[in-house]
Automatic annotation (TrEMBL):
PROSITE patterns: THIOREDOXIN_2. Residues 185-324 form the Thioredoxin domain. InterPro entries: DUF5106, Thioredoxin-like_sf, Thioredoxin_domain. This is DUF5106 domain-containing protein. Pfam families: DUF5106. It comes from Candidatus Cryptobacteroides avicola.
Length: 324
């Protein structure tokens, strides 16, 4: 059986895939107090496998940090005795554990973390733990530019914030809106159907595309990040083969109104893709999809069940590479 330190090191390897280097804080102005490292909990001795260690850390990562038996210094650069930059790095690491466990388990871990920061705030309203962690949750799980983003994981957090009396009424309303948007097309649910037209006026529907998998790709002409994804899908032999064989259909959809620009970009789009635009502009106005930034990628199965929702391209490509 692996030792406790071995398991923590192995588990940390999962999180290291997702680490974002947070900006360091300057020297604290708290007199003789010396900040301490973020207290990652020890893995219990009865846990003997990597998967169990990762699951434990996903669920209990914040336990020691939010232990109210001793509250440490909190100021502009210190959060309960830990430098703010180290807390941010810890949050990024924790997100790695969340992505390494099943979704339901990860959502449960988010719920548990929320309960602990609420308890901490109720114990000492002058502390900055609740506000700091809430800000990090939005930054890492919901910011469209975060490579760790996951609306599925942000949903339980936003839902609880929308009901939390520690949050101002205006912010609760904003969290309620975000929770509603995160509820659209959740992983494991049927994707919303819609119609689109190609450059020749032919009409299609998402559910009319027959393939084992559908890559739903919301893109814009001239978008450099979109061009990168297009080039990767064209140049990767395995991925291009999946598309050419019809096993994966790419629905490359434009949802804005500048059709002249879209028509002018047709030479960039591979002809074997379903390249279309929303003729009625209902995808965004009817809130069928929460397209907060372009590009936005979804992976669907044959029944159009969502496998990955608005996922970073690296996760999409990795999942596509698993297809036989």
């Amino acid at each position: 059986m692996a030792s406790n330190n071995d398991l923590k090191g192995i588990a940390a390897g999962f999180a290291a895939l997702y680490v974002l280097l947070a900006a360091g804080c300057g020297n604290p102005t708290t007199g003789e107090f010396r900040p301490h490292p973020f207290p990652v909990p020890d893995i219990p001795a009865m846990i003997g496998s990597e998967s169990e260690a990762v699951s434990y850390l996903a669920a209990h990562f914040w336990d020691d940090f939010t232990d109210t038996s001793e509250i440490f210094v909190c100021d502009s650069s210190i959060v309960n005795g830990v430098r703010k930059g180290e807390v941010e790095q810890a949050f990024a690491n924790w997100t790695g554990y969340l992505h390494a466990v099943p979704l339901a388990e990860a959502c449960g871990a988010v719920e548990r973390m929320f309960g602990r920061i609420v308890s901490f705030e109720e114990r000492d309203t002058s502390a900055n733990v609740f506000e700091t962690v809430a800000s990090l949750a939005e930054k890492y799980l919901y910011d469209p530019n975060s490579p760790l983003r996951s609306e599925d994981l942000y949903l339980p957090f936003a839902g609880r914030m929308a009901e939390c009396m520690l949050v101002s009424p205006g912010k609760r309303a904003a969290y309620e809106y975000d929770a509603g948007m995160c509820s659209l097309n959740r992983t494991g649910t049927p994707a919303a159907d819609f119609a689109f037209c190609d450059r020749n006026g032919r009409r299609y529907t998402l559910y009319g595309l027959e393939s084992d998998y559908t890559l739903l790709f919301f893109s814009n002409p001239g978008c450099e990040a979109c061009k990168y994804i297009i080039d990767e899908l064209k140049s990767d032999p395995e991925l291009s083969s999946l598309i050419a064989s019809g096993k994966v259909a790419v629905a490359n959809i434009y949802i804005d109104e500048d059709l002249e620009a879209w028509y002018g970009y047709q030479s960039i789009y591979p002809e074997e893709w379903y390249n279309g635009y929303d003729p009625n502009f209902i995808i965004r106005t009817d809130l069928l999809y929460n397209v907060r930034a372009i590009p936005s990628l979804y992976l669907l199965d044959r029944d159009k069940t969502v496998l990955l929702k608005d996922a970073p391209e690296e996760r999409i490509f990795a999942e596509l590479h698993k297809i036989d």
